[in-house]
Amino acid sequence: MWKRDVSVKPAGPAVMPGAPTRQTALGSARSELTDMRRQHEKGAVNIGKSVVVKGELSGSEDLTIDGVVEGKIELKEHVLTVGPNGKIKAKISAKVVIVLGEVVGDVTATQKLDIRENGSVDGDIVSPRIAMAEGAHFRGSVDMKRRSSTVGSNLEQSQMSHSMLGSGLRNQTGNR
Questions:
Q1: How do residues 140-171 score in pLDDT, each as one tens digit?
Q2: Is 89 helix (H, G, I), strand (E, B) or coil?
Q3: Which DSSP symbol is given to 67?
Q4: At a CB cut-off of 8 Å and minimum separation 6, what does 81 contact?
Q5: Taking the model in full, what pTM does it have?
Q6: Contact criterion met (CB below 8 Å) for 72 and 56
Q7: Is there a contact between 65 and 87 (Cβ–Cβ < 8 Å)?
Q8: What angle do CA 160, 162, 163 make, to 5 degrees?
Q9: Which residue pairs from 160-168 have beta carbons closer than 8 angstroms and sit at least 24 positions apart in sequence?
Q10: Residues 47, 66: contact at Cβ < 8 Å?
């Protein structure tokens, strides 16, 4: 049978659970770098800090904005990431919207809106899922519509059939 040697103690300083460590900070930085590499490999487009766009922006690939955009942004089936230096004054429509910078305007995300730490959204939100990190800012209204209208109609049909079944049973037992 194996016995643990109690004289051997782990090397390194004691860490309180939940306290931020150098390892967690490095892990966080690595995951962000990995996310950026994945976006680059998938052909994501990046609008840099010095770029200013005024007008309508649409596309069929993921987009990261670190510059300034005013107008309208439409990426129906793709991810829009507003970088930490991004300043958006626009109506946004995308599958997923990730905000690390500043957004002023209405946001419609068909899958999810994620406002990260230091991210800011001033405007109305329509999305089935919303995530807000501690330190994020939001001012506006939220409408958490379901992803599919068939979910609601299936629920209504189910409730109708149950109520019809119940009334049918009452009629049959009342006639006897």
A1: 999 997 755 444 444 444 444 444 444 444 44
A2: strand
A3: S
A4: 39, 62, 63, 64, 65, 97, 98, 100
A5: 0.62
A6: yes
A7: no
A8: 65
A9: none
A10: yes
Cβ atoms of residues 78 and 60 within 8 Å: yes
Token pair 């309208």 is at which residue? 72
List the beta strands (DSSP E) in the chain: 45-47, 52-58, 63-65, 68-82, 87-99, 102-104, 107-115, 120-122, 125-126, 130-132, 137-139, 142-143
Among the residues of the chain, which ranges form H helices?
Answer: 22-41, 149-175
Higher pLDDT, 14 or 87: 87
Nearest-angstrom CA–CA distance, 173 and 166: 11
Report the amino acid identity of residue 29: A
User: Which residue is associated with the tokens 């089936």?
Assistant: 77
CB 144 within 8 A of CB 130: yes
| 3-state secondary structure at position 5 | coil
